[in-house]
Amino acid sequence: MTMLKRSLRGRLLRGATGFRPLFMHVVIPKPLRSFGRHALTAALAVLVLAGLAARPAAAEELAKNLFGAKQLPAVAAPQSIGFYSKGCFAGGVAIPLNGPKWEVMRPSRNRRWGHPTMIALIEKLSRDAAADGWPGLLVGDISQPRGGPMLTGHASHQIGLDADIWLTPMPDRKLSLEQRENMSATLLVDEKTHLVKDALWAAAHTRLLKRAASYAEVERILVNPGIKKKLCDTVKGDRAWLRKVRPFWGHDYHFHIRIGCQPGSPKCKAQENTAPGEGCDQSLAWWFTEEPWRPNKNPDRPKARDLMTMASLPAACQAVLDGPDPASAEAVTYYGDGVPVAAAPVLMTAPAPARASASGGAALPASVNAFAATPEIGIPLPRPRPGN
Ligand SMILES: [Zn+2]
Q1: Residues 150, 264: one domain?
Q2: Which keywords fit this entry according to its UniProt record (predicted)?
Q3: Ligand 1 center to 154 CA (angstroms)
Q4: Angle at the Cα of 88 (from 380 to 97), degrees rounded to 5?
Q5: Does residue 123 sit in the same domain as residue 261?
Q6: What distance in angstroms lies between residue 143's CA and the mean position of ligand 1's atoms?
Q7: Entry pTM
């Protein structure tokens, strides 16, 4: 930075003393010409810096900073854009901090946003799990309001279709906001053996995972390999659902629900199908070899999210980033049990959505195409709850 400043200053001084100016288009206003050299330099520096700021700097800004700064979703029809680990989404809704059978953990992170289908599914799971005997869900990270890469944590969770649910049941007494920030989770897996700690595992965990896997929208559930092994070793009767439960690093205190691309998201990139079968075979045995746990050879290599710029994301994500805010978080909070998102206040403030003409849709800039399918309303009512 110092070197840049020095070289800029040098070039500016040369420009001011008769050498070819750095920026030919900079016209020095008349009053400035009578100023001393320092004043002229300072004035030019301001102009040059302004020019630099307006240059492609915006495009090169890290996407995680831009998306991480958004407090509210983009008002639009719900749409996931890109892939789970490289994308964003519009029309997100929030799960309320408290529900009859759930509580949102780490609320200060503001990651309780998702595609309406994802939020509805979590709320439904909370009710179904309660009926199965699980006291309630502690809801972990879902997505940022407009998705995108995060400042910390997760590679995925970018398109509103991933959610983490703790494997700790909701306590009897309501957690305070402070407890939700600080309460530590229970690790269910021994870090050395990668096996489940039997004293902590209960049949209720199996029922919860089975219930989560039972929904058609759910394509995968990620768990620690030790948990997958526990299921493989103990589930009796119907085992078909084990196919959706996939072993992965981490996920030793929470499980991760991933639903598929939803209707209305033509730019959503589907993941590969899971391999046929229960997954209790060689593919699981591999996790209990040394190979997956070798130390990272390049621990300092930056993660993808630390390099992604807007240019790395689908072009439509710029429109999501630029999209209008709703009136408030409350206006786009999804209350289950048949109470829809409060859409009305949003409708009054949302600008008319851009629409592609029938003939020229393909020629429109990406920022318009991103919302081409947006109907006249700002936020549509959520679709019927999954499974209903
Ligand atoms: Zn996750």
Answers
A1: yes
A2: Hydrolase, Metal-binding, Metalloprotease, Periplasm, Protease, Signal, Zinc
A3: 6
A4: 65
A5: yes
A6: 10
A7: 0.73
